[in-house]
Every structure is written in structure tokens, then in C-alpha cells.
Write a structure and sequence with these properties.
Thrombin, subunit H; 28 strands; 4-stranded antiparallel β-sheet; mainly beta
């Protein structure tokens, strides 16, 4: 009996130790990579150093946009009960699909506990959003009603709804938090919102079907992808005018984008055009790397050495080495990975 029980007890002890290690590892690891899986309604947590999946958390329907709160303790995730209606589906076909407005919201995940602790109101069909630096407000794009909602996090109420362009998607607060830029897919514009008054103060024409937007560190420039005309628009934020419009090679369908730490290179997820684009902002020359079938979400590691790409058709996150501009690895996740965000 002694010979049988000893190894059994050892294995049990080892399993318990490993489980404890896992729990400690998740809570103490500073940098974490989060993946929103639109089709699965889940968020996957990945250790970006080991590329191991640490957990998968059920959240809600159509999990897409995500942001980590200013203190790094909470993860906010947009969920939507509106059906998926890609550009090639007619309005008539889309209207026949079932809508569940009760599923619309901003889910709040306690990162340490790894569970949803609260669901905030979001307005209709939230897709992307951004959080103010003080952690008090969230600006949300409401795609199916052409609005941007301002959410008071502490009160848990929508403070204001602001009319924006048709089919709003990308949302980004300027580094000083004085402005909020919202892309409009169908109007091909950027709506500029003054966050002091929460009123739209300008509309800027950009490339066709603008998907996402980022600012440089000083906030003097904003970069906007145009999916339908394969372009990158550069906006001077002081004059609120486009100062450059870079056409990418034929067949490009740019969506998400990140800026290198030195602000000389922009890396762009090429969506339905497949792969990733490396664009030199000084020369406007670009390199292309084919990855997956429709890479969408994109994020750069804190040290600027790696880029992570979410590819829904592959149910995978690809890892690109920035120095060599080659695929380094891939991680299988839940169905339909859409967005990526790092806690650093």
C-alpha cells in the first residue's frame, strides 16, 4: 500500500503546487495580453513573455473593444447584441437578423479575480471606446445609431449622447484628454468632440471607411486608416485638417494601427487585405508581411520588440518580431479573436 500511495500523493501535491503557481503567476505578473473573442463572447488572458494562456473568461455577446483602467486593476470590454453585418451584406439581410439589446454593455472584469464584477450601460451596439486618464468617463461609439455615448463610470449612467458620423467605430482620446476623435465608416469622416462641453466641434474628411485612429505622444498628429481606399490620413490636430493622405499598395484594407516608440514607423493590421503593413512615415515606403486571413486587432509590446495581431478566421493571435519583421509565433485562442490590449 505504501508503494502505491506515495506516488499518488506526490502527483496530487504536484498538481496542487502547479495550481497555486498558476494563481500566483497570474496575479503577480505585471504585463498581460488580453484578447476579445467576438464569436465566443470571451476574453483570453495570455502571458506575453511565455505566450501561455492563463485563463479564458466568459463575458457576453460579441466582445470587441477593450481597455485597461488607469490603475491596471480592471479590464473594460464592450459587448453587443446586434448581429454581425459585414460590408457585403445588404441592409435588408441585416434587418432580418435577431437583435438582443439586453446584451449591449461595458463589462468590467476584475483582473485579479478574473471575473466580470459589473456591467455598465453603453448605449446601443457599442464597438470601440476610450477611457479618460482619471478613470471617470468612457467615450463609446454606438455603431447602429450614429452616436457617441459618454458614460460616467462611478454613477453608472450615460451622461450624454452626441451625434457623430454614420456608423461610428474607432474612438480615441487625445493624450491631454481635451478631445475625443470618433471615426465614421459610412460618412468617411472624423468627428471631433470637445470633452469639456461634450459637444462635437468639427468634422474632418478622411479616407474611405475609416476604421481606427491613434495619436502621437504629443497629440499634435492623429493617424487614421481608410479601409475602403487603402489609405492612411494624417491630421494636424491644431488646425483639425488632413495634412497628408498616404495611399498604400493596391489591395490594402487597413484597419487597426500602432505607432513605434520613436514615432517613425506605423504598423497596420491589413484586415481583409491580409497581413501587416510596416509604413515608414518619413519616406512613405512600406513593407508587407502576409499573416492569417483577416488580422484586425493589433498591439505592440511595451519594449517595442513585438507586435501581436488578432486573426478571427484563424482563431489565433500572431506574434511578429519587429526587428526581423517576421512571424515569430502564434497562439490558438477562443473563436473569433477581434481586439487586443496590454496591461503593462
Amino acid at each position: 500500500m505504501k508503494n502505491i500511495m506515495t506516488p499518488v500523493l506526490f502527483v496530487c501535491a504536484l498538481l496542487l503546487f502547479n495550481q497555486c503557481q498558476k494563481t500566483t503567476f497570474i496575479t503577480k505578473n505585471k504585463e498581460l495580453l488580453f484578447v476579445s473573442n467576438e464569436d465566443a463572447g470571451m476574453v483570453t488572458i495570455i502571458d506575453p513573455n511565455t505566450l501561455l494562456i492563463l485563463d479564458t473568461i466568459p463575458v457576453g455577446k460579441r466582445t470587441r473593444g477593450m481597455k485597461v483602467g488607469p490603475k491596471g486593476e480592471l479590464l473594460y470590454v464592450a459587448t453587443s447584441g446586434s448581429p454581425k453585418c459585414p460590408p457585403w451584406i445588404t441592409e435588408e439581410e441585416c434587418e432580418k437578423k435577431k437583435v438582443d439589446k439586453s446584451a449591449d454593455g461595458i463589462a468590467v472584469i476584475d483582473i485579479k479575480k478574473r471575473k466580470v464584477i459589473r456591467v455598465l450601460p453603453s448605449g446601443s451596439d457599442p464597438e470601440q471606446f476610450d477611457i479618460s486618464k482619471d478613470g471617470n468617463y468612457i467615450y463609446i461609439s454606438n455603431e447602429d445609431v450614429d452616436m457617441a455615448s459618454v458614460l460616467d463610470i462611478k454613477k453608472g449612467i450615460i451622461e450624454k449622447e452626441i451625434p457623430v458620423g454614420a456608423e461610428p467605430e474607432g474612438v480615441r482620446l487625445s493624450p491631454d484628454n481635451k478631445w475625443c476623435y470618433v471615426t465614421a465608416e459610412s460618412d468617411h469622416t472624423i468627428t471631433v468632440i470637445n470633452t469639456s462641453s461634450n459637444k462635437a466641434v468639427a468634422s474632418i474628411n478622411v479616407g474611405l471607411r475609416p476604421r481606427d485612429i491613434i495619436f502621437n505622444a504629443s497629440g499634435s498628429l492623429a493617424y487614421v486608416t481608410g479601409e475602403a481606399d487603402g489609405s492612411l490620413s494624417i491630421i494636424d490636430t491644431k488646425s483639425k485638417k488632413v495634412i497628408d493622405h498616404i495611399k498604400l499598395r493596391e489591395g490594402s484594407m487597413p484597419v487597426g494601427l500602432v505607432l513605434s516608440p520613436d514615432e517613425k514607423i506605423i504598423y497596420i493590421a491589413n484586415g481583409r487585405g491580409k497581413g501587416i503593413i510596416k509604413l515608414n512615415l518619413k519616406t512613405s515606403k512600406s513593407e508587407y508581411l502576409l499573416i492569417g486571413k483577416r488580422p484586425w486587432g493589433i498591439v505592440m509590446s511595451t519594449n517595442g520588440e513585438k507586435i501581436y495581431l488578432a486573426d478571427a478566421p484563424s482563431n489565433a493571435v500572431f506574434v511578429v518580431d519587429v526587428l526581423t519583421f517576421k512571424v515569430q509565433d502564434s497562439i490558438k485562442v477562443a473563436k473569433g479573436p477581434w481586439g487586443l490590449v496590454l496591461r503593462n
